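Customer escalation, tier 2.

The customer says the design service returned an amino acid string that "doesn't look like it belongs to this structure." They asked us to rerun it and document both sides in this ticket. The original structure tokens are below, unchanged.
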């Protein structure tokens, strides 16, 4: 079995269950992208796109065989949306890097979404979940309501990351809270495990970006010169 065949068809046996090699590989790319995102590095976006392409084939059984009986169309669909939003994020961070980036070396400067940003996020969260629920239910997705929120929340979090909003880490945590039990019940154990790790990682990422923001705010404070004696 060559490398490409191993990636497309290989599986790892754990007890009576089989886990696709590409599910593990795709999630590995996703984790690497998250690390790059926390460090605000431009390479996080192309790495994430590679993971999206691999994971798309995992959640849709009609393309390539998989051991799970459930098709999570929301999980598959979010990989497609990720591609579009990630291209935007890649472009935005590259432009930020070309313009000099953040004072501490990151591609973007962490900021808060603010009231206007949260109004946009909340509106899309409600409308997106409602619309995707109807679509996913018609497609026969297993668990259409939580799957709809995972899809919607993932789009919002990725968009927030592209904008450099600190708040996007909190949205990811809300996605993970719903995603872990759904994926466990559906038998996607590597993805469920990664979602669990993501939850802890996102808390760390939120604190990291918050600390950077506070440091930059402190540096911006003008310190009065010492009065000569």
């Amino acid at each position: 079995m060559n490398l490409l065949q191993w990636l497309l068809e290989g599986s790892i046996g754990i007890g009576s269950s089989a886990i696709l090699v590409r599910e593990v590989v795709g999630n590995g790319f996703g984790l690497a992208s998250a690390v790059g995102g926390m460090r605000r590095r431009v390479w996080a976006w192309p790495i994430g796109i590679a993971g999206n392409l691999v994971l798309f084939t995992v959640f849709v059984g009609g393309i390539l065989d998989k051991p799970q009986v459930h098709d999570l169309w929301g999980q598959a669909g979010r990989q497609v949306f990720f591609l579009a939003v990630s291209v935007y994020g890649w472009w935005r961070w590259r432009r930020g890097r070309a313009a000099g980036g953040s004072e501490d070396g990151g591609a973007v400067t962490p900021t808060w979404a603010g009231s206007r940003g949260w109004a946009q996020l909340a509106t899309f969260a409600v409308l997106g979940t409602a619309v995707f629920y109807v679509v996913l239910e018609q497609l026969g997705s297993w668990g259409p309501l939580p799957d709809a929120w995972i899809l919607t929340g993932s789009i919002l979090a990725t968009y927030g990351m592209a904008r450099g909003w600190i708040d996007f880490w909190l949205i990811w945590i809300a996605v993970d809270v719903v995603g872990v039990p759904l994926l466990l019940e559906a038998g996607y154990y590597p993805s469920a495990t990664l979602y669990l790790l993501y939850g802890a990682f996102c808390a760390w990422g939120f604190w990291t970006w918050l600390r950077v923001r506070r440091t930059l705010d402190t540096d911006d404070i003008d310190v009065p010169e010492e009065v000569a004696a």
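Tier 2 assessment: The sequence is consistent with the input. The longest strand covers residues 11-14. Residues 15-214 form one domain. Sent an explanation to the customer and offered a walkthrough call.
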